Amino acid sequence: MKTSKQKRFAAAFAGMLCISCLTTPFSAAAEDTDITGENDTIATAEGMPLNTAVSGEISTKGDVDYYKITLPEDGTLQISLTAGWVSDFGDSYCITLYDADGTEISKDDYIHSNTPFPADGRTAGVYYLSLAPHYADYPPTSTYTVTANFTPKSQWEADCAYELEPNDSFNTASPLALSAACQGIFHNYQDTDYYAFTTNQSGKLSVTLRDDMQSSNSLGWSLFLYNRDRKQIGKASLTKGTASVTIPEQGFDPGTFYIQVKTNDMTSRNWSYADQYTITADFTPTDSTYESEPNDTRSDADSLLPDASISGKLADASDVDFFATSLQDRYSRVTLQFQHDLPETLSDSSQTPWCVSLYRYHAETQTIDTVPIQTWNVPLGTSSFSTDSFLAKSGTYYTKISCPGTNSYPELEYTLTVEAVGIPYEKGDVDQDHAIGINDAFLALSAYATVSAGGEMPLQDAAFLAADIDEDSEITIQDAFGILKYYSVLSAGGNASWDNLQ
User: Whole-angstrom Cα distance, residue 434 to residue 486?
Assistant: First the structure.
């Protein structure tokens, strides 16, 4: 509620009072001139017909005029007041709007001139309006004219063109149409507005708060985005003098989302006049090629097939994205490809706005490695980054995308691809001649000797995997001995088995 005498007629009546010059071809008589007591309380409030000018007069000390306004359906309510303004001192009004229970909705206690304000959305029901002198001992001497202008929702240009008060909680959130602007109004310094919308498909979503008149109060406004669990998933702040602010575009699963808009003057009472804003939730449908938030943990990870690509964004420096890839081949040679947009201004290409980490999931224990298999820092100036290829066993792997520091660009879009080429091989067949013999054992022994002498491993991919009998990712003398023993049992006509080699 505003109390400063310097304040202009704010927000009222269903969010806004509009004071404008009215012609009165549809004027109706209100209370009789110089008569008090007939509509001086809510209980005795006089019915006010919609869209019809009503005249009255407050000419005695203590007089207050109450009117009852009934909205037959949801729509916009706009109160207009005119009077014979003579002086700020003697002709000032206090005007208040109440809900059906008599609870004050909005109030302006210093109306002394014609000041226009936009209409505001209101749900169907009963409302009360009171007019009183600002100075109790000096009531206005002239007749006033007041009008409750009403436009039903069915006549709005769009179904969700206006917020519908009351909408000050999740449970009373106003419906919002995707990709369509909705007009809202802050009624007073304590006002907060909630909106809700639902998508039935995955898509990219951003929310924009506009203040085209740049009228936001001194501390600005705050914008929040919540998911169906009412968990905050986005935030932005609009400062005074700024035309708009946007919660950056992100990919989300289908579901219900909530938007909250509030003034930052909640506790300061720093309020000077009614503020009008526009809220828009822009939505672009996507498919499995774009991330779906929340994917901040392994349990929420998006699925990424081998050799497929997926794109995404980090909402802020604290956001992380997880992607799960399942490798079906016993062994694969894997390469990660990471591409990202470049900022419009590239001042320091050495920054590393992204960290790409790979973790393995162990199905037998249903746990994920706490330490990544590998980690790569992606420089800002490198728009396309490719890791060295590496061998990976069959199973599920998780790729984590994160911001390593404050000098990051989370608004930039990236694309991740996990390339995997399966490697067919037969255990023990190092020379890949489809037979296991002494030469296979010799190749394994030779590889061991080379590495032991400080040389590089001569066996690669299928040959290496065939020689690694105990699958410990190393070629040792035990592997060579195992191949020789397997060959010996096989040559003697025995039942050779890798599992029974001792």
Answer: 14
- Residues 2-28 have pLDDT tens digits of 333 333 333 333 333 333 333 333 444
CB proximity list for 138: less than 8 A, separation 6 or greater: 89, 90
Determine the 3-state secondary structure of 171 from DSSP: helix
Both tokens assigned to 80: 């207009």
Rounded Cα–Cα distance for residues 113 and 92 (Å): 8
- Token code pair at residue 307: 């050799």
Asked if 232 contacts 322 with a C-beta cutoff of 8 angstroms, the reply is no
- d(CA 488, CA 502) in angstroms, rounded, equals 13
Q: pTM for the whole thing?
A: 0.74
Which H or E run contains 464?
A: helix 461-467
pLDDT of 398 over the 50 cut: yes
Q: What is the pLDDT of residues 182-224, one digit of tens each?
A: 999 887 777 899 999 999 989 999 999 998 776 555 578 899 9
Q: Which two tokens stand for residue 73?
A: 């359906």
CA distance 213 to 220: 13
CB atoms within 10 A of CB 52: 14
137 torsion bin: left (phi>0), alpha (psi -120 to 50), beta (else):
alpha
Q: Measure the N-to-C terminal CA separation of the chain; round to a whole number of Å.
A: 87
Return the sign of the alpha-carbon dihedral for residues 442, 446, 447, 448.
positive
Coil vs helix vs strand at 296: coil
